[in-house]
Write a structure and sequence with these properties.
Layout lengths: L1 H4 L2 H13 L5 H23 L3 H30 L3 H9 L2 H14 L12 H18 L1
Length: 140
């Protein structure tokens, strides 16, 4: 049991570093935290059967996949599911390249909970409203 517990401080530090890395996406951070947590839990469980390394490896793999899936779902939710009707309105008027610019701004901000439209400037909102008005005029 003591041998298994020797790697716990290093694993805890790994979790803290992974969670605090601002340049990584939410998916990447969640996968890293899941892998580190899975390695700890798997190592402890594996130690009970005499295979702490195998348990840690399996736990890291399962935790990494689960954490990555969770992080990805949270990213998608912040892009679409957590949006209001005005957010949907602006996003529907944007080109894929413009949405990519907002995603880059969001990543650069370091924030983890956001709506993409939080990163639109007032001028950009006005330009999108004009774009919509022009489209409506053409459609008449």
């Amino acid at each position: 049991m003591m041998k298994t517990l020797q790697f716990l401080p290093a694993a805890a530090i790994s979790i803290l570093l992974a969670a605090g890395c601002s340049s990584a996406s939410r998916t990447e951070r969640s996968a890293a935290v899941g892998a580190a947590t899975g390695a700890i839990v798997g190592g402890v469980i594996g130690n009970q059967s005499g295979n702490p390394r195998t348990g840690a490896a399996i736990g890291a793999a399962v935790g990494g996949v689960a954490g990555g899936a969770y992080g990805h779902s949270q990213e998608q939710r912040s892009v679409s599911g957590g949006s209001s009707s005005s957010d949907d309105y602006y996003l529907s008027l944007m080109t894929p390249d413009e949405v990519d610019v907002l995603r880059a701004r969001a990543r650069a901000s370091g924030r983890s909970d956001y709506r993409l439209t939080d990163f639109l400037t007032d001028q950009e909102r006005e330009n999108l409203r004009r774009r919509d008005a022009s489209r409506r005029e053409i459609g008449r």
